[in-house]
Amino acid sequence: MSFQTILDTRKALDSKQTSAVELAQEALAKADRLSYLNAFLHIDPDLTLAQAQAADNKIAKGEQSILTGIPIAHKDVFVTKGWRTTAASKMLANYTSPFDATVVSLLEQAGCVNIGKLNCDEFAMGSGNENSAFGACLNPWDTNAVPGGSSGGSAAAVAADIVLATTGTDTGGSVRQPSALCGVSGIKPTYGTVSRFGMIAFASSLDQAGPIARNARDLVELLDVMSVFDPKDSTSVMQCHGNANQQGRIKASFEKAVAHYQTNGSTPLKGLRIGVPQEYFTKGISAEVKTAIEQAIAQFVSLGAERVDISLPRTALAIPAYYVIAPAEASSNLSRYDGVRYGHRSKAYTGLEQMMSRSRTEGFGAEVQRRIMLGTYVLSQGYYDAYYLQAQRIRRMIANDFQEALQSKCDVIMGPVTPTVAKNIGDNKEDVTADWLADIYTLGVSLAGLPALSIPCGFGGEKGNRPIGLQIIGNYFNEGQLLALGDCYQQQTDWHLRQAEVK
């Protein structure tokens, strides 16, 4: 894009230096030029330019918001009118929704211009965007590397400078992890603060939508619009620590935190306690990631924060607990795709049972089938108590560990997003569960329903061109504080300003 931040773009639009139509045309042209990244699954220029023209009309009347005319794109698990919604699966290869997801509607009402639908792991199941039925998305920093998953297309589109921001979903780390591996910023808000209505379900008690952008200030603008109570979503929360879950909440919290930090002069973070879990720095983490994270935390300390060593003793248990709970919920949610009402239907079958079996076999990819089978097994008679209920007990213990730390020992928790830099595409082909282990630092946050931010903090890899992300975890509904801390760090560093060289 010609402009690197939403604020800069807003000023250019309002001063008539550019128009929403021109920005949309530029984004469409760049998406086409960089189609080799495979970040987009569906683009419709007519639909995009119609939204852009509507945005220009609003600007001409002086009715614009800060997001009016801003080019964005949506992960392909948010249903959209006009654009296809496939969840990157053959099961929904030609599906077009008759309605928009709440998140899509809210951003459209704010004036955002949708450039298209973004690649992801099939039904959001994966950590590298290699499970897409339409091919892997490539990392703009190094096309031999995965962009992370499942929101790989969302992070890649921002990193490649095609759009200013995107939507993603985070079930076990799928906003934070691709943000970290693509050198951009992303936030998973507190579970229930952003509507799941119209978001194709993977694991209902874990799924949460979140934005991805270049920097924390841009995330504020997106999340502030997205975070509202939605009566159409039974898991949507009405109140956030006594404040109504409505537009303006995130921005007010962010501005309050920024104002507080500014009163402290050269040590803006004076009084802030940063918890650093010892379990995040044991075996498994690479030396380059550990060094980058330690340097980032040291930067916060130099700004006045206090480092506090803490323990999250059940960190390792997050992996088995998550991979019981999430597949169990996926097994239930994906049972609706049976070839009867919508989705793929096999052309060769005799009888209803064979039609359903063959439709699901042909429509679902290997990873989705694997998780459905695992989930069905742990929910079956004789195993429900031993696996599913036990996993739910561990989930509560993990949440309690976070609460004990955040209520008595520290204000926020910091650590890595991933144990290593992005792996090469195809590296884990022979070990289908290897990717699961890479989620060790993100799964506990999801199981607890806490908010967490990922911001770029360094590079690694053989060529030094694979990004590293810092994770900042807060207590429930403290998204504004996390974004203010991210902004404070980004005022002092330039990791978020570095751009991938794409042609």
Protein described:
By secondary structure, the chain is of the alpha/beta class. It has helices spanning about 5-15, 20-35, 45-60, 100-110, 150-160, 175-180, 215-225, 250-260, 285-300, 320-335, 350-365, 365-380, 385-410, 435, 440-450, 480-490, and strands spanning about 40, 70-75, 115-120, 165-170, 185-190, 210-215, 240, 245, 275, 305-310, 410-415, 450-460, 465-475. The strands form two sheets. It has an eleven-stranded mixed sheet, with helices on both faces. A two-stranded antiparallel sheet has the order 7-8. Strand 9 (about 275), helix 9 and strand 10 form a beta-alpha-beta unit.
Strand content: 5-15%
Which whole number gives the mean pLDDT? Answer: 96
Uncertain stretches: none
Proportion of residues in helical segments = 25-40%
H-E order:
HHEHEHEHEHEEHEEHEHEHHHHEHHEEH
Give a quick precis of the structure.
The chain has 503 residues and is of the alpha/beta class. Helices cover 39% and strands 13% of the residues.
